[in-house]
Amino acid sequence: MSSPPPSPERVRLDKWLWAARFFKTRSLAAEEIDKGRVRINGQVAKASREPKPGDEIEFKSGYATRTVVVKALSAVRGPAPQAALLYEETAASIEARERAAEWRRLAPEPAHAIDQGRPTKRDRRQLDDFRGGASRQRWNDRWSASLDE
To answer: Full-prediction pTM beyond 0.90?
Structure first.
C-alpha cells in the first residue's frame, strides 16, 4: 500500500471522519457528532474536537458500532486505500461487526413472512362470509331501495 498523506498538525473531527471515508459528506459526520453518537476515548465529542494519533473513536456505522484508533491525520478525502491508512479498527470492533452481520443473515426478516398485503375487497367479503356474513347483512339492512315507502 502507499504511504499516508502528509498529516496536518490539526484537523477537526468531522473533517477527519469524512476524510477517512466513514461518512459520505462532512455534514453527515457533523450531524452524527451533534447527536452525540461519536465518542473519543469514551467521551462524547464535538465536531470541532481535534483527534490525535492514538485516540480511540467510537461511532455507529450501519447496524454496528465501530471502534477505530487514529493512526494519522488528514483533512483531504483521498481514495479508499489511502483513507484506510488513517485508522486501524480494533479487534473487538471487527468481531462485533462480523457477529452482527451473521445474526442479520440468520435472523428472518419479519416482513418477508407476509405473503401479500392488505386483503382485497373480494378477500374481505370471503372472510366476512366465512365468519358468518353478519357484517354485510347489517349494512344491507340499513338501506331501503323500495319505492313503496
So the answer is: no
Condensed to tens digits (0 to 9), the pLDDT of residues 72-123 reads 999 999 999 999 999 999 999 999 999 988 988 888 777 777 677 788 888 8
- Which grid cell sits at 34? 451533534
Residue 48 to residues 4, 11, 15, 44, 123: CA-CA distances in angstroms? 23, 8, 9, 12, 59
Going from the C-alpha of 99 to that of each of 66, 93, 96, 115, the distances in angstroms are 13, 10, 5, 29
22 contacts 29 by C-beta, under 8 angstroms: yes
According to DSSP, residue 142 is labeled T
**55, exposed or middle or buried, with CB in 10 Å at 0-12, 13-18, 19+?**
middle
Phi, psi of 87 (to 5 degrees): -150, 165
